[in-house]
């Protein structure tokens, strides 16, 4: 049984950009709630649009149970988990937001996230504690309703969360567009123990009204009784970051061990707010006439660095405040001091050739940091509708 998107397309008008993107890529529906498959999620973070117009396929209870029965335990996770599951998995909207956060955060932040979920401090996270995440993401993502919107927003919440929710004091003001860092800041700074206690008390009611998902079964077992330790949590997050980077790299490498410098530039620029990318590409072609190629290790190290962009920006600003120019050696040193990531000389040279638009062999804050902040927010793009 399928339901055509056009039947409820008017709900798009009442959805936030993130909700719109989830609805566009999701392909499954169970008891009125929409879900992505692992394949849908990979598409959503590596493609501008779904490869084909989709309909929401309704799952039966038997089909959902079969999918969950085939979900591997967390200790069998790998950097090919999502590709191996393919269409055999269900990912809820709040889990989609959580997974997007994983893709844009430094490894050091994973411990912070884990400790915030671990409300009883036993260095293990159980299913009840993890479900607190659902409420935090829901509260941070809700949109203030205009008069007359109540019915449509209620339908949308049921479609995305699987249960009716009421608006609360944590709603953002109308027109405000919170970046992905807002979710992280909620976990890291803004969420008090009182809020966690309150949400933890409600999580029993929430869990009883929600269906299990692939992620919940993967983390907590088919009976939901297992607990998640930090090592498994860290491995899952590191594997997901690696998997998405592998998919992007392989889409350009054509079976080779490297991608061209121009392909590397394409990957960086396609997620930014840069209007005229051709000028950057032409700049790089003129200044790197002979291709050497970018390896996957170089590619991965650069994106590990980007996930630490805030710390690097502080180091880079210190050079600027001291009226010091940022050359390649200073850039490489600032990356290592701020993030612990060592970038190869060839990779640094390629980055300079792409972003040094005035060709003075120096990078300014505007030339690099401003553009890369757009790139960091993959999945929350501004120029491309999300």
From TrEMBL:
<feature type="domain" description="EF-hand">
    <location>
        <begin position="343"/>
        <end position="378"/>
    </location>
</feature>
<keyword id="KW-0677">Repeat</keyword>
<dbReference type="InterPro" id="IPR018247">
    <property type="entry name" value="EF_Hand_1_Ca_BS"/>
</dbReference>
<keyword id="KW-0496">Mitochondrion</keyword>
<dbReference type="InterPro" id="IPR002048">
    <property type="entry name" value="EF_hand_dom"/>
</dbReference>
<dbReference type="GO" id="GO:0036444">
    <property type="term" value="P:calcium import into the mitochondrion"/>
</dbReference>
<keyword id="KW-0472">Membrane</keyword>
<feature type="domain" description="EF-hand">
    <location>
        <begin position="105"/>
        <end position="140"/>
    </location>
</feature>
<dbReference type="GO" id="GO:0005758">
    <property type="term" value="C:mitochondrial intermembrane space"/>
</dbReference>
<dbReference type="GO" id="GO:0005509">
    <property type="term" value="F:calcium ion binding"/>
</dbReference>
<keyword id="KW-0479">Metal-binding</keyword>
<dbReference type="GO" id="GO:0051560">
    <property type="term" value="P:mitochondrial calcium ion homeostasis"/>
</dbReference>
<keyword id="KW-0809">Transit peptide</keyword>
<keyword id="KW-0999">Mitochondrion inner membrane</keyword>
<dbReference type="InterPro" id="IPR039800">
    <property type="entry name" value="MICU1/2/3"/>
</dbReference>
<keyword id="KW-0106">Calcium</keyword>
<dbReference type="Pfam" id="PF13499">
    <property type="entry name" value="EF-hand_7"/>
</dbReference>
<protein>
    <submittedName>
        <fullName>MICU3 protein</fullName>
    </submittedName>
</protein>
<keyword id="KW-1015">Disulfide bond</keyword>
<dbReference type="GO" id="GO:1990246">
    <property type="term" value="C:uniplex complex"/>
</dbReference>
<dbReference type="InterPro" id="IPR011992">
    <property type="entry name" value="EF-hand-dom_pair"/>
</dbReference>
């Amino acid at each position: 049984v399928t339901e055509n998107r056009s039947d409820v397309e008017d709900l798009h008008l009442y959805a936030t950009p993130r909700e719109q993107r989830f609805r566009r890529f999701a392909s499954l529906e169970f008891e009125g709630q929409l879900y992505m498959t692992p394949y849908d999620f990979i598409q959503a973070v590596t493609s501008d649009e779904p490869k084909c117009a989709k309909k929401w396929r309704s799952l039966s209870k038997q089909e959902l149970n079969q999918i969950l029965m085939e979900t591997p335990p967390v200790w069998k996770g790998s950097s090919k988990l999502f590709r191996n599951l393919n269409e055999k998995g269900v990912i809820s909207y709040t889990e989609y937001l959580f997974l997007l956060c994983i893709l844009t955060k430094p490894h050091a932040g994973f411990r912070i996230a884990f400790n915030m979920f671990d409300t009883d401090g036993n260095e293990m996270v159980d299913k009840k504690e993890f479900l607190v995440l659902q409420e935090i993401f829901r509260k941070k993502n809700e949109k203030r309703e205009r008069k007359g919107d109540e019915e449509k927003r209620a339908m949308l919440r049921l479609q995305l969360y699987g249960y009716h929710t009421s608006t609360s004091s944590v709603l953002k003001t109308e027109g405000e567009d919170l970046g992905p860092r807002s979710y992280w800041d909620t976990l890291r700074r803004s969420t008090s123990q009182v809020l966690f206690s309150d949400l933890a008390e409600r999580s029993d009611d929430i869990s009883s009204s929600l269906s299990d998902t692939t992620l919940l079964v993967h983390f907590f077992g088919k009976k939901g009784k297992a607990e998640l330790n930090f090592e498994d949590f860290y491995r899952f997050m590191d594997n997901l970051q690696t998997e998405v980077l592998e998919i992007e790299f392989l889409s350009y490498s054509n079976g080779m061990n490297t991608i061209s410098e121009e392909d590397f530039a394409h990957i960086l620029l396609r997620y930014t707010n840069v209007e005229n990318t051709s000028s950057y590409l032409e700049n790089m072609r003129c200044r790197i006439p002979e291709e050497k190629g970018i390896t996957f290790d170089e590619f991965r190290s650069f994106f590990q660095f980007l996930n630490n962009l805030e710390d690097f920006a502080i180091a880079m600003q210190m050079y600027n405040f001291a009226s010091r120019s940022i050359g390649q050696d200073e850039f490489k040193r600032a990356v290592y001091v701020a993030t612990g990531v060592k970038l190869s000389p060839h990779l640094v040279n390629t980055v300079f050739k792409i972003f040094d638009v005035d060709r003075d062999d120096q990078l300014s804050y505007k030339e690099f940091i401003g553009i890369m902040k757009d790139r960091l927010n993959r999945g929350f793009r501004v120029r491309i509708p999300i």
